[in-house]
Fold:
Amino acid sequence: MSANDSVSLGNPLLMKRAPEKLEPLTILDTTLRDGEQSPGVTFSAEDKLAIAHQLARLGVDVIEAGFPYSSPGDFAAVTAIAEQVEGPVIAGLSRCFEEDVRSCARALAKAKRARIHVFIGTSPIHREGQLRMTQAEVYERSLSMVRLAKSFQDDVEYSAMDTTRTEPDYLAQVLNGCIEAGATTINLADTVGYATPDEWRQLIEWLYAQVPAMADVTVSVHCHNDLGLATANSLIGIRAGARQVEGCINGIGERAGNTALEEVAMAVRLHPEVFGVATRFDHTQLFRTSRLVSQLSGMMVQANKAVVGGNAFAHQAGIHQDGMLKDRRTFEIMEPNEVGAGSSLVLGKLSGRHALRERLAALGYRLDDEDLKRAFVRFKELADRKREVTDRDLEAIVADERQGAAESFHLEHLQVSCGTNLRPTATVRMLLPSGESRETVSLGDGPIDATYRAIDALVQVEGELDEFAVQAITAGMDAVGEVTVRLRHDGALSAGRGADTDIIVAAAKAYVQALNRVAASRDSGPRLTPERMGAQKVATEVTK
Structure:
């Protein structure tokens, strides 16, 4: 469906003609960097690579693959993405420190197209409260690090962190200096989601007037959702002249999250006459990308989430159903298949390995022979229990196989006894990191509580269950259930997910995955994030 066709679904009295030529809107996806800063989210290098390949299929212009200096794991992930993912520009984030910039350059060395993204807090709150730096010191540090990044890559982005709480005149001075130093993209960051749309538009328009050089570079907006305004502010930023939007799939990210890119993509697609821009997205990949990120992050997508939520195309009220039966346009401004949510192809127990491979390839999954063999065994097991295996079921199988590839703890056996007037009892056998297989029996208040107590007794990892959620992946009595848990350990959250037709088994898988992530994070040590920059180190450098 063309842009003009999509406009016709709305109210013709409110529509204007779309421009003859739409300007390209660059989309920078930061799911792998800012999205990973969501509490409880830790992507492995394999997770990041899988998401990056899917983002390339979606048509993202720039993938911010990570923060190379923050940890050896992040450096390895950025390096792998730079080497293996083709199409998008691969970006690495860097604080305004020389070692950060050099680390970023090394990680991106083999990318066909690369970008170094440097940032520093420019607001008085960040300068004085965190960095212990003066205006002049932040200004000089910004320009010197842009120049250093430019010596490695022509494509350099500069972000003024906490743009909306920075003194406007000082902000204009910094941005002008960074453009002269070689920045090709200037990112305006509403880091704490503080701005209202009117304030945001006025600031961007004022900056364009004060810094004429901004007309010669790409102006970007990076909005957080603390007040629920991230998508609105990103869209109004486009109206004010921004031609790059930064955000995450499903709107994940620090605190309340980032701009949800699927919302921006569909808003500009349905309203070309308002925004005058177009993305390169293959919109049919949106739902698929959302599901992959949800599975690997352990963060469920709320049912009423715009564009990709389970209820986004559901109609229950009688008047809505009547309207839909007569004309879909009465209560739908876009169709499910536009975002890839309308797939109905199913496989059954008579389907062969070739059919499974072809369907997984269509869903965007590339499995080698060994992975396919394991997935096929799981598929046959599920097909024996379900009459039809849907795309959502296949996604769950692949997600489970991925998480099982690098386990410290592995669930080998689970048996639960419970019922009226019975004390729930769970028998669990686990394969431990030592290679030893151990079994124990525990009682509990319910079957899941008994299961978790037994697992705790075997793995000896202290943690507190912070959140437990369950949903059906597909409809019907034989539906596969998906469980998501969050486990708190030493003040940090680790997420896990599991899927099975037996919800108790799904709950056990989710809990074990969360424990595996706790073990992995404990072994790798703390990870540095931009919002935890280390003010002491900055202060030390400034006083040198």
About this structure: The first helix runs from residue 3 to 7. DSSP finds 19 helices and 16 strands in the chain. Residues 24-297 form a domain with the TIM Barrel fold (CATH 3.20.20.70).
